[in-house]
Amino acid sequence: MTLSTPMAPRTGLVLGGRYELTTRIAVGGMGEVWEALDRRLGRTVAAKVLRPELVGDELFLARLRTEARNTAGLQHQNVAMLLDHGEQEGSGYLVMELVLGETLADRLDREGTLAADDLVPLLVQACRGLHAAHSAGVVHRDVKPANVIITPEGTVKLTDFGISLGANQAPMTSAGMVMGTAQYLPPEQAMGRAATPAGDVYALGVMAYECLAGHRPFTGSTQVDIAFAHVNQPVPPLPASVPAPVAAVVERMLAKDPARRPASALACACELEAALHRTTPRRSRRAPAAAGTRRALRAEQRADRPDGPRPHAQSGGTAVPTPAAQSGGTAVATPAAPVAGPPAVVPPAGPAVRSRRELRTSGGAASAPLPVEVVPRRGSRWRLPTWSELASDRLWLGAMAVVLLVLTILLAAALGSLGGADSSAAGGPAVPFPPISVKDD
Predict the structure, then answer these.
(1) Report for 205-209, 217-221, 222-226: range of highest mean pLDDT
(2) Taking CA atoms, which of 61, 73, 243, 345 is between 20 and 30 Å from 337?
């Protein structure tokens, strides 16, 4: 009698009396991932079940329990959320949120490489998910494209914490045994040292290199050769098409010494964002405004319009953008068709300013507000009149002489009255000021 037959993952199998398997999604080294129906809540979930040949193996059951324990405390938008865990007939299973999308490995198989502008936002999200795990004391230890799911909206989800290492977790491997995928193995772990968050940053750097170059930085005929290549061989340069700031950050992530890598996954995310910002050209300040900012667009048009009276809208006309002849191509709204109206008024020669009284006497309506026409005289400057010009206007000189004579008489009379007042004031009795006493407290 074998226990693998009743617990072999298949369509229709019900886990824990609640989750019914419907469609197999993927097969991994330790388990199979199925799409399942939660009968209790009526939602679709993802179920990871141990492979049939591993049923009854206590080592893999312990690893599944560790994965459940390490993932249970992670609540982050870039980490696939654990919903439930259970064991049944010598096997175990994990129930997680169903993430719709494709893995980064599938995308690489389809596209070959990713441009830096497309890759960096994905790496930043992966860094944030890793930072959430590291903050909870969990090291993933298996960061690779197959464990990164990208949703149709572009959201990254980290999955498969099957060999993760939690805080105060007892070692589950024998001495000299290395956990992880050789192609993404950090050098310190290849030499038998303990896994740290810096190792996840290194594995993410290998993944970034693979996406940018189309191949992994280190290869070999065996897993051991690949692991030693991580330790001994320098990182090959990235293609020249990769922007220099992004290439510099990836090279730092692949440093042999963990101390030379970004200080944390969150620091790595900040460096990647800064590198992408330096490689993205800034939008010109004089670029057209975005849709909806019509007020700013009108202000910009007014600023580019030449000096002069602004055209007023004609009733019944449709504004059509037309290129301006002298304003550098700025679009100006003009009426679609000319509208008949009064002829243009040309200011007559004469004074620059016409008063309201002159306008009334010339036939203007008294009830309507009368405009004041101002015609600037360009190039003119005020100057003193010459004596010949003053002498020619005798009437003006006579009037000024009469005014000066009257002012002289008035000034003399005022001075005489002030003199009499002062003499009368001087002859009066003096009134002494009352004494003032000061009290010193």
Answers:
(1) 205-209
(2) 345
